[in-house]
Amino acid sequence: MATTIIEPFRIKSVEPLRFTSREQRIKILEEAFYNPFLVRADDVLIDLLTDSGTSAMSSRQWAAMMEGDESYAGSKSFYRFETAVQKITGMKNIIPTHQGRASEKILFTITGGKGKYFLSNTLFDTTRANIEFSGATGIDLLTEAGLQPSVPAPFKGNIDLEAMEKIILEKGAENIAMVIITITNNSGGGQPVSMENIRAASRICKKYGVAFFIDACRFAENCYFIKQREEGYAQKTILEIANELFSCADGCTMSAKKDAFANIGGFLALNDAALTQECRNLLVITEGFPTYGGLAGRDLEAIAVGLEEIVQEDYLKYRIRSMEYIGEKLEAAGIPFVKPVGGHAVYLDAKAFLPHVPVHQYPGLALSNELYIEGGIRSVEIGSLMFGKYAEDGALIPAPMELVRLAIPRRVYTQSHIDYVAEVIIEVFNKRASVKGYEIAYEAPLLRHFTARLRPVS
Ligand SMILES: *Cc1c(COP(=O)(O)O)cnc(C)c1O
């Protein structure tokens, strides 16, 4: 019997890639102030900057978009969207937003503020920024296993339950805005959280009367890992696992640009009626009327169909297998990366890859830029450029890990693209000793990595 796991789709429409020379790329990078976010997409060959909004939509999604009902209030597309989200989350109240961060902004404006704490396995960059912007404090409580890039474990996204309970007692339950668990843990290697961990976290929250939320961007990938790795789930469908997982929570925020195969969109799902009312009141002044919330009817349609497709096992099997495939190639070449490979991305361990570049010279950025020069591949630094802070004396307080994320857009690249990516990484690894670090020439006060300007350290 043939065992190769193939792409579970065929290609109906194609988009050409544009090739550049090494000399051109050196110049392009210089003109972009050595920040991959400032490079034009057209100058990138294989774009692994993010899996956000970059999915290929299915013919069913495109067909549904033509059915989009653009009525201002009560559009048919909203009810279709609402039903699709309820089917997965089981939550009562569904609020569409233009992106995940809009859901965060609304929810945290109401629940956050000065003196409040948000506890998480790891907060994503926009999530942390929205918490801090409200005046509250975000605390990451990843288990020890999650902080060891080279040591594999099945659920490296788990929250440290003991530390969580300790902080609830220390700060007082009334000061904990919520516990919000990110599935999969994007900033910590795309690692999954176990059902056991989610159940236990939920139980602790109930005990102290603390709200329990899920940052659900990659819920389907997380559920597939639970099915594969956690006892008692092998016979369950992804939808059943998702239902069980969301039943532990009071609500969730979601970016439909990830596990909903949409190019834009998000939602906030809640059980509490009073909180929903407050969120909708904010929604109308920032996003739009409650039945479209910053989206066109056609976007709501694309999300509704995307949510049906994302829980299909043929797809998830191919998705997770293609990630493992890259991992195997890197492993064979001795390249340091976060193990096991995550659900949506491979995370190179830049600290181990470039041991001669100190953290204050941003080894992650240095590696990311080298991948671009070598092979036109765009990736993103997830390290001290993204999460670093300054001490009072101006010294850098580095992030716990220096990673380079190669996020794989859903249903977009084929096996030969991935083979090429692995070859480029290996090529850079072979000449790693010559790679130099960077220093910051300009930075914004929040989310500095998006717009920072850098220069190579001479
Ligand atoms: C992408 C993402 C968000 C924010 O969603 P946007 O749609 O980009 O605003 C929040 N949390 C996690 C874990 C994400 O990956």
Task: Write a short abstract of this structure.
The chain has 458 residues and is α/β, with parallel strands linked by helices. The chain has helices at 22-31, 59-66, 76-89, 100-111, 125-133, 161-171, 195-208, 219-229, 238-246, 273-286, 297-310, 313-332, 350-353, 363-375, 384-387, 415-430, and strands spanning 46-47, 93-97, 117-120, 137-140, 176-182, 212-215, 251-255, 266-270, 345-349, 377-378, 380-382, 389-390, 396-397, 403-407, 438-442, 453-456.
Question: How does this structure look, described?
Answer:
It is an enzyme of class 4 (lyase). The modification N6-(pyridoxal phosphate)lysine is found at residue 258. GO terms for molecular function: tryptophanase activity. This is L-cysteine desulfhydrase. Its cofactor is pyridoxal 5'-phosphate. The N and C termini lie far apart (57 Å). The longest helix is centred in the last third of the chain and has 20 residues, at 313-332. The chain folds into two domains: 22-51 and 312-456, Aspartate Aminotransferase, domain 1 (Alpha-Beta Complex), CATH 3.90.1150; 59-310, Type I PLP-dependent aspartate aminotransferase-like (Major domain) (Aspartate Aminotransferase, domain 2), CATH 3.40.640.10. It contains 16 helices and 16 strands. It has 458 residues and is an alpha/beta fold. Helix 1 (22-31) packs across helix 14, helix 2 runs antiparallel to helix 11 and helix 8 (219-229) packs across helix 9. The chain is globular, with a radius of gyration of 21 Å. The chain has helices at 22-31, 59-66, 76-89, 100-111, 125-133, 161-171, 195-208, 219-229, 238-246, 273-286, 297-310, 313-332, 350-353, 363-375, 384-387, 415-430; strands at 46-47, 93-97, 117-120, 137-140, 176-182, 212-215, 251-255, 266-270, 345-349, 377-378, 380-382, 389-390, 396-397, 403-407, 438-442, 453-456. The strands form five sheets. It has a seven-stranded mixed beta sheet, sandwiched between helices. Strand 3, helix 5 and strand 4 (137-140) form a beta-alpha-beta unit. The model has no long low-confidence stretch (mean pLDDT 96). The structure holds pyridoxal-5'-phosphate (PLP). The site of pyridoxal-5'-phosphate has 15 residues, from helix 4 and helix 5.
